[in-house]
Specification:
Blueprint (H helix, E strand, L loop, with lengths): L22 E3 L6 H4 L49 E2 L7 E2 L18 H5 L7 H5 L1 E3 L6 E3 L8 E2 L8 E2 L1 H8 L4 H12 L27 E4 L5 E3 L12
Parallel strand pairs: 1-8
Antiparallel strand pairs: 2-3, 4-5, 6-7, 8-9
Length: about 240
């Protein structure tokens, strides 16, 4: 993802993992990592894509998708595709705006009317509007901008995940307590980082977009990804 909240993070030579668009799967981790608890879920608003299905002709304006390939092509609430409204903020998420858009997946949706959705030119979810985002590791909602920021964004331009310095440090240095403490300190001070969603959790190497077996499948509920060839057989998921 890009640097946290527009502060100039120094790139300290972190491994430059691929910026290709990972494809997604759902692992058995708690869905709260993506939505938070209670009413925060419905306040997460997202990116705009256009499905070829249009049941009654009243299209949502998608001419200005606000991020192209960087935005999510699945709803952040129900993980289904279709007609989506895309947040143009840092989270890069997408949502079903109207009840009918999420009917197939029983999605909670944003609850907008067709008239309301058609009036939206540039959409910001409440998280991006108020600059409060959830840690993609522990799920806590925290300030993400300014001197009081407690969560920081992954440096990859295509990534919308935020993390506490302590959470991401433990993920990046799981076997080195001293190293994790030092990394936590540096990230809190503004150092950029790339989260582990951008390399394979099994072989620890990055994606190779030229080889289908080395495409990454990224979980939508936790910072875990696998190459197609490395995907755990016991998962029961076909990719």
């Amino acid at each position: 993802m890009r640097s946290g909240d527009e502060e100039d993070f120094d790139d300290d030579g972190d491994d430059d993992y691929s910026d290709q668009n990972d494809y997604d799967y759902i692992c058995k981790y708690d869905a709260s990592h993506n939505h938070g608890s209670g009413d925060d879920k419905s306040s997460d608003d997202y990116s705009c894509t256009d499905d070829d299905s249009n049941d009654d002709g009243d299209d949502i304006d998608n001419d200005d998708g606000g991020g192209g390939d960087a935005t999510d092509n699945l709803c952040a609430i129900c993980d289904n595709g279709g007609k989506l409204l895309c947040c143009e903020g840092q989270c890069k998420r997408s949502f079903h705006p109207r009840e009918k858009d999420g009917r197939e997946s029983n999605c909670e949706t944003l609850g907008l009317t067709s008239a309301q959705s058609s009036e939206i030119d540039h959409y910001l979810c409440k998280n991006c509007e108020y600059k409060q985002h959830q840690c993609f590791s522990c799920g806590d909602l925290e300030p993400s901008d300014g001197p009081n920021a407690k969560v920081f964004q992954c440096y990859k331009a295509s990534c919308g995940h935020f993390y506490h310095p302590s959470c991401i440090a433990k993920l990046l240095e799981p076997d080195d307590t001293d190293g994790a403490c030092e990394l936590e300190r540096r990230i809190a001070a503004g150092m950029s980082f790339t989260c582990p969603a951008h390399w394979c959790s099994e072989c620890r190497t990055m994606e190779d977009s030229t080889q289908p077996e080395l495409w990454l499948a990224a979980c939508r509920r936790c910072p875990v990804s696998y190459h197609k060839k490395c995907f755990p057989r016991y998962s029961g998921i076909q990719i």
